[in-house]
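Quick start: what a row looks like.
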Amino acid sequence: MKTFVKVLGLASLVALAACDSAKENQVENAYENQADALDNQADNMEAMADNLTGAAEMRAENAADALENKADATREAGERAEEAVENQQ
């Protein structure tokens, strides 16, 4: 019975630790929304590039790639910010 109680207690602590706080969710959502907006801009840029030719197409594709890289960096920054909030608690 003691083992069961210990396992149940440990499982409860793990489950509690896995829960995000409201502030963590807020930080995560803010960064995720910004990254989604950048991805949408990149998609629009790629769609525009499909209608271009030559050097103009390459410039548009490069701009879309830059937006996608910025979106990835934003998501990574969001993960770091979320971890920082979690570590403060």
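That is the whole record. The two ends are 33 Å apart (CA to CA). Residues 1-17 have pLDDT under 50 and may be disordered.
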